């Protein structure tokens, strides 16, 4: 039996002491360890105040809480993984962002993936059938058409039909696009 991989260490550097304590409590409750003894953390948690005097990072990934402006700044400052979250992100989103950044991934809220001048469609403009919702949920889990068909008790052709209907209704051309748009519209959660 092998031991579970160690969780990344984090350093919370937020301007608000109350917000910093809350973020530290969420991450501590999820098993993350605080960086200690002047060691560089695996993941640095920052807010918009850090934008005033950012400096390139040698080894730490970054999770920012605040404005969308981070998405334009972090690629140059952080060659490692990074994430941008709105200040009202949920604890689950924060934990996922820390995991993703530590793994070298880039994480953005789905609503921020659309160009800044393009608003995502409100969910009221997209109506999915119950089966389309089921298929979208299975797409979000990363299931293949064959596996989704088995789970739903239908043919693979039926799943393909529903996937194409989703692409059309959501205005996308890929599975990833369908999931991202579905998340942005509140039609599916991951």
Account of the 3D structure:
This protein is α/β, with parallel strands linked by helices and 190 residues long. It contains 7 helices and 6 strands. It has a 6-stranded parallel β-sheet with strand order 2-1-3-4-5-6, with helices on both faces. Helix 2 links the parallel strand 4 and strand 5. The longest helix has 15 residues, at 156-170. The two termini are 29 Å apart.
Question: How big a fraction of the residues is strand?
Answer: 5-15%
Described by strand count, sense and barrel closure, the largest sheet is: 6 strands, parallel
**What's the level 1 CATH class of the largest domain?**
Alpha Beta
Extract low-pLDDT stretches: 115-119
Please tell me the overall pLDDT: 81
Shape: elongated
Tally the helices: 7
Could you say what the CATH topology of the largest domain is called?
Rossmann fold
How would you name the CATH homologous superfamily of the largest domain?
Response regulator
CATH architecture of the largest domain: 3-Layer(aba) Sandwich
What are the secondary-structure elements, in order, as H or E? EHEEEHEHEHHHH
GO biological process, one term: regulation of DNA-templated transcription
Pfam family, one: GerE
Keywords: DNA-binding, Transcription, Transcription regulation
Protein name: DNA-binding NarL/FixJ family response regulator
């Amino acid at each position: 039996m092998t031991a579970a991989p160690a969780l990344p260490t984090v350093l919370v550097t937020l301007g608000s002491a109350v917000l910093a304590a809350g973020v530290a409590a969420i991450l501590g409750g999820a098993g993350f360890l605080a960086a200690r003894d002047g060691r560089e953390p695996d993941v640095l948690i920052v807010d918009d105040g850090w934008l005033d005097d950012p400096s390139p990072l040698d080894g730490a990934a970054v999770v920012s809480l605040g404005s969308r402006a981070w998405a334009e700044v972090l690629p140059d400052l952080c060659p490692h993984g990074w994430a941008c979250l709105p200040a009202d992100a949920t604890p689950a989103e924060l934990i996922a962002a820390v995991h993703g950044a530590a793994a070298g991934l880039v994480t953005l809220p789905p609503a921020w993936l659309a160009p800044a001048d393009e608003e995502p469609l409100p969910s009221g403009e997209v109506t999915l059938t119950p089966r389309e919702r089921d298929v979208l949920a299975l797409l979000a889990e990363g299931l293949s058409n064959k596996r989704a068909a088995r789970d739903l008790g239908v043919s693979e052709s039926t799943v393909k039909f529903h996937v194409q209907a989703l692409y059309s209704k959501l205005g996308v051309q890929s599975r990833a696009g369908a999931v991202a748009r579905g998340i942005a519209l509140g039609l599916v959660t991951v």
